[in-house]
Automatic annotation (TrEMBL):
GO terms for cellular component: mitochondrial matrix. Residues 42-122 form the Manganese/iron superoxide dismutase N-terminal domain. Its cofactor is Mn(2+). This is Superoxide dismutase. Mn(2+) binds at H66, H114, D203, H207. The keyword Magnesium does not apply. PANTHER family: SUPEROXIDE DISMUTASE 2, SUPEROXIDE DISMUTASE [MN], MITOCHONDRIAL. The keyword Cell membrane does not apply. GO terms for molecular function: manganese ion binding; superoxide dismutase activity. InterPro entries: Fe/Mn_Superoxide_Dismutase, Mn/Fe_SOD, Mn/Fe_SOD_BS, Mn/Fe_SOD_C, Mn/Fe_SOD_N, Mn/Fe_SOD_N_sf, SOD_C_sf. Keywords: Manganese, Metal-binding, Mitochondrion, Oxidoreductase. Destroys superoxide anion radicals which are normally produced within the cells and which are toxic to biological systems. Destroys radicals which are normally produced within the cells and which are toxic to biological systems.
Amino acid sequence: MAVRTLLTRKTLSSFLRNDPKPIGTAAISAAASTQSRDLHVYTLPDLAYDYGALEPVISGEIMQLHHQKHHQTYVTNYNKALEQLHDTVGKADASATVKLQSAIKFNGGGHINHSIFWKNLAPVREGGGEPPKEALGWAIDDHFGSLEALIQKVNAEGAALQGSGWVWLSLDKDSKRLTVETTANQDPLVTKGPFLVPLLGIDVWEHAYYLQYKNVRPDYLKNIWKVINWKYASEVYEKEAYLVNQEDRP
Ligand SMILES: [Fe+2]
């Protein structure tokens, strides 16, 4: 039993390390609570603004559905998959454990990506759409020529992405360069490279815009910049760039 607990904790830690949220018990069933008492349960993060605060760029109806229904479903299914993983690892059922990986990637990725997305947005009256300044602003100019050139690149790659997915502005901590990346489905940015840090992620799933923009994804992409929270992206950039510099010191 002690070995099983140790193995389970070790395995789960690799999946849980990206979410510093404290552990709750809300989604654990009473029947499973004894066996799963060490499991962390992910919860839907609150938004820092009202659902209607991003209008007219993104309607309150879209925001509410997107947050309460879509993101909540990823959270619920991620917790469910982790409970199942706890069980299959404990039983040394390799086949069942491997079978869970796609559900963990999809729903865990959905939770990671949306948690970033909400922070990437801000109402206009709270600074949404204000261009990045200082370090990130200078880095964007260096890597893309101008903020406008970056926006055009993100919009082009986001519009060209087939099916559902995400378009990202990322910092490559290894090369120390800013890059534009896309990921399919709910793949988080880290699946494209271990050193990629998401500064800005835009959800291009239809559920993010269809009720308002119908099938015209380019219009959604064109407008979303009016509510992009560059302050958050700048804070992440400065923190991560500082860490890179720290690591480089002898
Ligand atoms: Fe979404």
